[in-house]
Design goal:
Blueprint (H helix, E strand, L loop, with lengths): L2 H15 L3 E7 L5 H13 L4 E5 L10 H12 L4 H11 L7 E5 L1 H5 L3 H11 L3 E4 L8 H9 L3 E3 L1 E2 L5 H10 L4 E4 L15 H9 L6 E4 L5 H8 L4 E4 L1 H4 L9 H21 L1
Parallel strand pairs: 1-2, 1-9, 2-3, 3-4, 4-5, 6-7, 7-8, 8-9
Helix pairs in contact: 2-4, 2-12, 6-7, 10-12
Length: about 270
């Protein structure tokens, strides 16, 4: 099975079950390698469908404070790109969950685009979500992802003009990621009022699955987003369980399991 097939099969299975997919974001190696692996194991145990692993970066422009601090903890623990690949390989010893890297272009470019894509596939990664790379400038990465059979996921924002949505969708594979609100990642109290209209407008241009993220943090928000999207992304609400429980690994894992269990449960209520 090629890597991208895991993503396609997941969305096909979710569609057959009449539900959206739950996409969980955590930063790789936060707060360190060993505990990060256990966090991922806990999320998978609680029914997460796709694991979105943030690759620690010193200048994460798209991230709010929660995810910035997560990256900082990982980097201070000595995390390197090799460790992130090693984390994926460890996860692959016990799970076939689709894994997507949430990353920045400089991290890919600095290691050689083809080399990065190849190493990602070899580790067991299914796709790359490169936050700061416009599709119009992504030819080399798109080609490298095709060669390594990785999904190439692009972001659509509330400010994206309608005529550009079709261009982005045409260059994407795996799924599309709609940012529900302008700005950076982080927990929000409410959702955009026109979310259903925005999602419908994107669907006019593509048959790719569409996930919605940025700011989704409560069960009720998961319920609302799951009514219109193929996938719901939650990050900060899960990541916050880590710094709140640094003194005790069992408490950390219990907190993130409880949070994930409640949020995943929102899918059945949608």
């Amino acid at each position: 099975m090629i890597n991208s097939d895991r993503i396609a099969k997941l969305f096909s299975d979710c569609k057959a079950e009449g539900r959206s997919a739950f996409v969980a974001y955590v930063c790789a190696c936060d707060p360190d390698f060993d505990r990060s692996l256990e966090v991922c194991r806990s999320l998978i145990k609680e029914g997460v469908d796709i694991l979105e692993l943030g690759v620690p970066f010193s200048d994460p422009l798209a991230d709010g404070l929660t995810n910035q601090l997560a990256a900082q903890r990982a980097l201070e623990a000595g995390c390197t790109q090799k460790d992130v690949f090693r984390l994926v390989r460890e996860i692959r010893t016990f799970s076939e969950i689709p894994i997507v890297f949430y990353t920045y272009y400089n991290l890919i470019f600095s290691q050689g685009i083809e080399n990065y894509a190849r190493k990602s596939k070899e580790a067991g990664v299914d796709g790359l979500l490169t936050l700061d790379l416009p599709p119009e400038e992504a030819d080399e990465l798109i080609d490298a992802c095709k060669e390594s059979e990785l999904a190439n996921i692009f972001i659509i924002a509330p400010t994206t003009p309608k005529d550009r949505i079709a261009k982005i969708a045409k260059r994407a594979s795996g799924f599309l990621y709609y940012v529900s609100r302008e700005g950076v990642t982080g927990e929000r109290d409410d959702l955009a009022g026109d979310l259903d209209e925005r999602v419908a407008a994107i669907r006019d241009h593509t048959d790719l699955p569409l996930v919605v993220g940025f700011g989704i943090s409560s069960v009720q928000q998961v319920v609302e987003v799951a009514k219109v999207a193929d996938g719901v992304v939650v990050g900060s609400a899960l990541v916050n369980c880590i710094p709140q429980n640094l003194e005790s690994t069992p408490k950390m894992l219990a907190a993130i399991e409880q949070k994930a269990r409640a949020l995943v449960g929102g899918l059945t209520a949608a």
